[in-house]
Write a structure and sequence with these properties.
This protein is mainly α and 73 residues long. Helices cover 79% and strands 0% of the residues. The chain has three helices and no strands. Helix 2 packs antiparallel against helix 3 (44-67). The radius of gyration is 17 Å and the shape is flat.
Amino acid sequence: MNFLKSFGRFWYDFVVGDDWKIAVGVVLALAALVGVLALGVLGDAGLTLLGAALLMTAFSVSLAIDVRPRGKK
């Protein structure tokens, strides 16, 4: 049982790391790509460009959330 717990912690730390928002953004971007791929709307080059744009957008949103100024307390 200890092995399974350690194995799960490793993969959680490997995938999520320090910022869970980036991991969620990557999962959402990949889900959107799978949806577009299933529809057959874009070719290989279009999927590549869309994937890059979605990942950069997810990272930018995560970064904007982290660096936004906090209100006075």
